[in-house]
Design a protein that fits this description.
Keywords: Antibiotic resistance, ATP-binding, Cell membrane, Membrane, Nucleotide-binding, Translocase, Transport. This is ABC-2 type transport system ATP-binding protein. It is found in: Cell membrane. The chain is α/β, with parallel strands linked by helices. The protein folds into two domains: about 180 residues, Rossmann fold; about 60 residues, Alpha-Beta Plaits, CATH 3.30.70. Helix content is about 35%, strand content about 25%. It contains eleven helices and 14 strands. α3 packs across α4 and α3 packs parallel to α5. The longest helix is centred in the middle third of the chain and has 16 residues. The protein starts with a strand and ends in an 8-residue tail after the last helix. The mean pLDDT is about 90. The structure holds adenosine-5'-triphosphate (ATP). Adenosine-5'-triphosphate binds next to β2 and α1.
């Protein structure tokens, strides 16, 4: 697999505040990579460095095959960036915003117009193309913002919290757009605070906390890597609860709710073994639920409670 982005030992401080403390990242071409982390963990700082907006204090970075320190212009030509704050000019129409972007990228009048028309269609903005951007909803503005990023047909796109503030329907539309781009071979570097978004879109996820990558892998690998899976059993009375606790040994019990929690890897085998043991001891259960760790559990297990503002 070809690498779209590699970063090794990336470091950045603002004054005496260490924001990135030697992080490594590795993103394959044509995939979605998500950087997760609490507020202030350093996600935007990573995006700003990888997209040449600010310099790093140390480390080596290659983007689209180019050394970031030596060939920033070549990196800039290969990437698109949409930040947390919209680049849309409110005093222009949607189409004019796209044409302005095409002009800035020296696309030429005819090619620029073609690209603008194409992107307006792709982002479902054709009908509102002639309206002032100030009249657009938040979701339309986000779509226009992303369309503007795509004018130069970048192969690597940095999306810094692209769905913050969007309603559920607009988020879904943005997710579909991102999937379509990746299907077309584009690499997406996505920062988000929404765990479901990373779970839904990312091929690989890195969790950033206090300037360090504390875990990296697929969502499934991250979930397997933390404890938290358990089977919860419910009983009709304390006698049965006591009997089950004796049979099963190391359990967490909640007498008020008449439940026991048994650690489990979530496999069918673990469930069957547990039920067999209760069966053999003739202990009847009233209800049962299996809890496998989700990305929320991963996030809470891996990131510190203390806010990342130092
Ligand atoms: N230009 C700057 N000068 C000083 N400190 C900065 C600067 N930019 C970022 N920081 C600090 O660096 C840390 C990381 O900020 P960053 O914006 O990268 O975090 P983040 O993970 O993107 O957070 P959020 O999820 O809130 O956007 C924060 O403590 C922030 O205050």
């Amino acid at each position: 697999m070809t690498r779209a982005i590699t970063a090794t030992g990336l470091r950045k401080s603002f004054g005496d505040k260490v924001v990135l403390d030697g992080i490594d990242l590795d993103v394959e071409q044509g995939t979605t990579f998500s950087l997760l982390g609490p507020n202030g963990a350093g996600k935007t700082t990573v995006v700003r460095i990888l997209s040449t907006l600010i310099g790093a204090d140390g480390g080596a970075v290659r983007v689209a095959g180019h050394d970031l320190a030596r060939e920033p212009a070549a990196v800039r030509a290969a990437i698109g960036v949409t930040g947390q704050f919209s680049a849309v000019d409110n005093l222009l129409t949607g189409e004019e915003n796209l044409l302005l972007m095409a002009d800035l990228q020296h696309l030429g009048r005819a090619a620029g117009q073609r690209r603008a028309t194409e992107l307006l269609q792709l982002f479902d903005l054709t009908e509102s193309a002639g309206k002032m951007a100030s009249t657009y909803s938040g979701g339309m503005r986000r779509r226009l913002d992303l369309a503007m990023t795509l004018v130069g047909d970048p192969r690597i796109i940095f999306l810094d919290e692209p769905t913050t503030g969007l309603d559920p329907r607009s988020r879904r539309t943005m997710w579909q757009t991102i999937r379509r781009l990746v299907a077309g071979g584009v690499t997406i570097f996505l920062t988000t605070q929404y765990l479901d978004e990373a779970d839904e879109l990312a091929d690989r996820i890195a969790v950033l906390d206090h300037g360090k990558v504390v875990a990296v892998g697929t969502a499934a690998e991250l979930k397997r890597g933390i404890p938290g899976g358990h089977i919860s059993l419910q009983f009709t009375d304390t006698a049965r609860l006591d009997a089950a606790a004796r049979v099963l040994g190391a359990v967490t019990r909640d007498d008020d709710a008449l439940t026991l929690q048994v650690p489990s890897d979530g496999s069918v085998l673990a469930l069957r073994t547990l039920l067999d043991r209760l069966d053999r001891a003739s202990v009847e259960i009233h209800g049962l639920s299996v809890h496998t760790p989700d990305l929320d559990d991963v996030f809470f297990a891996l990131t510190a409670q203390k806010e990342n503002v130092r």
